[in-house]
Amino acid sequence: MKDLVRMRTSLKEEIEIALNAQVKMESEASQKYLAMASWLDQNGFEHTAAYMYKQSDEEREHGLKIFKYINEVGGAAITPTVGEVQQEFGSMREVFEAALQSEIAVTNAINKIVTKCRQAEDYATEDFMMWYVTEQREEEKNARRALELFDLIDANSPTGKFELDKQIAKIGSAE
Ligand code: FEO
């Protein structure tokens, strides 16, 4: 049955595998941000915690969008299993360094899918993935901006932590 269905789709198996891997990666990003939100919440950074909860929701949406696309084009979307994520952080800055690192890894993975799509002449999926290319540019920019704020605001000054909590939470809201 599955073979018959596959004959009716132009989705190549290697692209389907890559897309399912990306669903998993977006799901992991969502869980990572959820853990970061919790740490921020526990350490009194209520505004940045809210920002991270929102990031976590967005990552879930990113994964879901690919999940639905796979099924829409005749593939089989696989519900991802996510392993342990980092729960403890040494500082607020460490949280945002981990966030930037995660976004860069996602960007690299997205770029590899686009390259695969070109090689497989799957222009429909390439077109679909361009939304992610644009989104990653924005997300990396926001993560970098958060780290820049740590150079501008002294996290160890009496009001620094409070100010950082407010300013980082504003990132992205002006767009
Ligand atoms: Fe959807 Fe920020 O990766």
Summarize the structure.
75% of the residues lie in helices and 0% in strands. It has 175 residues and is mainly alpha-helical. Helix 4 (92-119) runs antiparallel to helix 5 (123-152).
Strand content: under 5%
The portion of residues assigned to helices is over 70%
CATH fold topology: Ferritin
Q: Span from first to last CA?
A: 47 Å
- Give the overall form: elongated
CATH superfamily: Ferritin, core subunit, four-helix bundle
The beta-strand count equals 0
Number of domains: 1
Which CATH-level-2 architecture? Up-down Bundle
Radius of gyration, CA atoms, in whole angstroms: 18 Å
Tally the helices: what do you get? 6
Spans of at least 5 consecutive residues with low confidence: none
Report the CATH C-level class: Mainly Alpha
Ligands in the model, by name, code or SMILES, are: MU-OXO-diiron
Give average pLDDT, whole number.
Answer: 93
Report the major sheet: none
> What structural class is derived from the secondary structure elements?
mainly alpha
Q: N-to-C SSE series?
A: HHHHHH
SSE map:
Blueprint: H1 2-7, H2 13-42, H3 46-72, H4 92-119, H5 123-152, H6 160-169
Helix pairs in contact: 2-3, 2-4, 3-6, 4-5
Bound molecules: MU-OXO-diiron.
Structural account:
- The chain has helices at residues 2-7, 13-42, 46-72, 92-119, 123-152, 160-169.
- By secondary structure, the protein is an all-alpha fold.
- The protein has a single domain (2-169), classed as Ferritin (Up-down Bundle).
- α2 (13-42) runs antiparallel to α3.
- The longest helix is centred in the first third of the chain and has 30 residues, at 13-42.
- It starts with a helix and ends in a 6-residue tail after the last helix.
- The site of MU-OXO-diiron has 7 residues, from α2, α3 and α4.
